[in-house]
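re: ur question from yesterday

yeah so i grabbed the chain u mentioned. its 370 aa long if i counted rite. heres the sequnce exactly as i have it in my notes:
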Amino acid sequence: MSSSKKLHRITLQPIGAVLEAEEGTPLRDLLFEQGVEFPCGGQGRCRGCKVRVLQGHVSVNAAQREHLSEEELAQGWRLACQSRLEDDLVIELRQWDATILVNDAAFAFTPGEGLGIAVDVGTTTVVAQLLDLEKGYVLGVKTALNPQARYGADVMSRVNYAVAEGGADRLTELIRHEVGRLIHQLFTSSQADAARLRKITLVGNTVMHHLFCGIDLEPLSHTPFEPVNDGMQVFRGSELGWNLPADPVVRFLPCLGGFVGSDLLAGIMATGMHQSDELSVLMDLGTNGEILLGNREHILCASTAAGPAFEGARISMGMRAATGAIWRVTATDHRLDVQVLGNAQPRGICGSGLVDAVAAGLELRLIRPT
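ran it thru and got these structure tokens back, copy pasting raw so excuse formatting
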């Protein structure tokens, strides 16, 4: 006689969503898609996944006692990455929101046959567009959180999970499944004929390129951070587990360097800076940030971890630049003044607020230069 684990019900406030899952399920697996962030990859260090239990019981472990005060624990605050489902729960959380900017400007293209899909595999967000290759029309756009983010908000956390913890296959499986899901959503919402799909093109930074394509990340885990296989990778949809009628060709475009990916190559092509006589600058301020400077003669590029500058990663009260984040701190009349995004009650501080706070602290001599 087979036995099954008890099911528990989780109600999420204020959004009113209701989930069901088996007893013992990690809350990280349940709450990531509902907007809870895990900046340190579930190591219990950053408090970024803090949620409040309004009803029900969630046990407290040593990591939570180390990073949450007794007052916070008494008020029901828990670290989702350190908790498992053991009771029916009502949880208070903040919902993640992604705004996708649309540009309707005309662009040059060579007409083709059928439909195509363009995918930007970002460290935090995945965006897919369905295009009419003959007319250049965008027929649909779908976006989702990159499901790998539950194992770390930044690329180096994911490199560590892949290399040191043996999680590379898991990360590859997650991103391939998520892109496939977005593709099916595009055809469902647009009612376009999937049999007309001819090609799928993906771009992303070098770590996303390697993880999607199943390439060893070990060379990117240490200096000099030089990839050994950063070229274009070509698949068929069926090789990736995608059940698409025409089994289209899937291309992940080549990277430009260790941490400068094919998303910047796409930016160069889109802006035409490689054909321009004038010097121009192209910046991609994502979780992984890049700056390019150049023209048709030569292009220089550099990369940095831009995400922490905006998200306040691994800071006890750090958060994204979202509603409730202190984003600006100034020294006024010998005191600190703050501005909060959304004119709401402050919930934490993002990276720009941290930089301002240090500068204001130095100005007011609250912080010593040493």
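noticed a couple things. The chain has three domains: 7-92, 115-296, 320-370. also The longest helix spans residues 168-190.
anyway ttyl
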